[in-house]
Write the structure tokens for this entry.
Amino acid sequence: MSKTVNISSPSQFNDVLRGSKLVVANFYTDTSNASQQVAAVFEQLSHALSRPNLVTFTKVNTEQQKDVAQAYRVTTIPTFIIFRNGKVADRVQGADPIKLQSVVNKLSEEVQNLASGGGEAGGSGSGSGSSEANWRGAALPRGYNDITDQIELRSCELLNVDPDAGNVRVLFDTSKPSALSEGKGGAKDWVESDTDEQLLLFMPFQSMLKLHTLQLTSLPPSDDDDAEVPLRPRRIKLFTNKPHNLGFDEAEDLSATQEFELSEQDWNAEGTANIPLRFVKFQNITSLVLFVVDGDGDGEKTRLDRVRLIGETGEKREMGKLEKIGDEPGE
């Protein structure tokens, strides 16, 4: 007998999220061939990993439960969303059994830990895995979580990046930056600007967010004699709810949601600046554009090692309220 829970209402889905530490939801339709291709794999995983009050596998027919699908911005069929403590932790879009298996392999490790009394899934409740696996350059503001995992990595775009440095994904790596580690070899896990100091980073989100704090880590080498040593960001502009990245001229001219100027005193010993945002202006956010206008010094390049978003996810609201989020104007 299948252990998978078939969702028949938004309230039932909310009950499942509240009643299980880990939830794997299969958003599907009966008419989708892609859904049918991975249905058997999903059922096998459900049978092997389901645990009462710990791990629950659910199926959500998006044609019958449109409110649930809309609340979690499901646009691709099938989509598999993994929830940890009621928050979106990961998602797999499309009939990709290899990716699904990879995500579930991580899940199985958590299942074993939970079943053996290893504590809460997700450690501190940040939605990004255990505290040991997640490096942070600054403490979390009281009452808020690290929600960087809500960034849709595949759709991120970084303009004016030096191809010899890392790519955009390294900015959201959960590991400690190599510049702070004893062994500094291997791939470059930071980004640098290319032709001048400016960078334009576009970050779309998997769900509606409330942003409270932006944490930036920049760890340029301390070689004062080298004119090519990159700089830390100085002036920064933020733009919200843009459907795509901006151009540099456009970013220069547009009025920003918030802009600020960092000084040497803003960077802590971990190379991280903890930047409070005007919370009232960062409600119901679907995307963020970060524009590094210039660097703090006379060089021609700026460097970023990590970007962290701190705040709340829309999934913390009740389903009925989530349905209205898209109709509320952003600040």
Q: What stands out?
A: The radius of gyration is 21 Å. Residues 44 and 283 are 40 Å apart (CA to CA). The first strand starts at residue 5 and ends at 6. The chain has two domains: 5-115, 145-325.
